[in-house]
Amino acid sequence: MAIVRESGERATMAKTLLLVVPVSWAGLWTAPLTEIAPDLDVRVHGRDEFDPQSIDYALTFRPPPGFLKTLPNLKAVFSLGAGVDGILADPDYPRHVPLVRFVDRTLSSEMAQYCVLHVLMHHRMQRFFDRAQAERKWRQALLPKRAAQTRVGILGLGEIGTLAAERLRDIGFAVAGWSHARKNVRGVESFAGEAELGAFLSRTDILICLLPLTPDTRGILNAKLFAQLPKDAFVINVARGGHLVEDDLIAAIDSGHLSGATLDVFNTEPLPETSPLWTHPKITVTPHIAAISEPRVAAQYVADRIARVERGEPLDNIVDPARGY
Ligand code: NAP
Question: Is 163 in the pocket of ligand 1 (CB under 6 A)?
């Protein structure tokens, strides 16, 4: 571990952070970390030498399974993203080490923008008018419904789901959310737990998935769930690809039960060229771009929390590994 000389005679041990990401990405994070926290000794897994005993903190998204447990003195692990499924996919994650996820208002706001955009695209029938334009047809007879007549349902009323619900409510949609515990969000109907999932789905015209990917939620967007939505419902998955059974979605659309879908996340990313999702006329595909963590903001977030740990203060946004989020 490096020794840093402070002004005066006092010497303190520098803290070491290991960045566990593909080496080709590392510069994105090392540059702002070094600038924001010059006393932090930043090492990159796969590029730099390090003594496992010397690592105090890790910053990662999808570490190699079993790797984090080889670092015996970890004080905290920081996730580069809002979701921690890539970290908890490691069955050997050292559960005594606090896992801190990235929570950032700008990131949540961009996610909410994506939801608003795609709800409006569907609600205002934009794809229909795009086709009409391509055919030079003046299709004025078919008008969108009023927002209050369209019921939006959000699976997951957490950091992002709540903000998306508020933005959609403010536009005038009839918004409800489904979560583990009941929520109190002004103007947003709250459904909680398995027992209320059916009632939530049956009142939902546009369903947005903003759940974390956990053992309980993997594959939740499946044929059984789609069957509980009203005919012509529309599905937006912006959470994780693992939530969706892609074949069930295509079958529900092709049978005429669902009217279409917008997908930002996929079981395999990048989405393989052979995937039928690319060319399905009722599916919009975006390449996991709804919101991306900004390295500078994340570096500041991590540096602030390391300082807190070193001062003996409690951490926020800690994930419960048993719950998975
Ligand atoms: P969060 O704050 O942890 O919120 C999760 C919500 O889901 C909570 O309301 C929680 O209920 C609910 N929930 C979890 N498991 C549940 C279950 N089994 N039954 C019912 N409700 C359940 O998560 P977030 O930060 O809003 O993130 C949402 C999702 O967005 C994550 O999957 C994340 O990976 C994804 N994401 C995607 C992108 C992208 O670019 N596409 C970018 C950022 C984030 P309680 O509140 O009652 O516990």
Answer: no
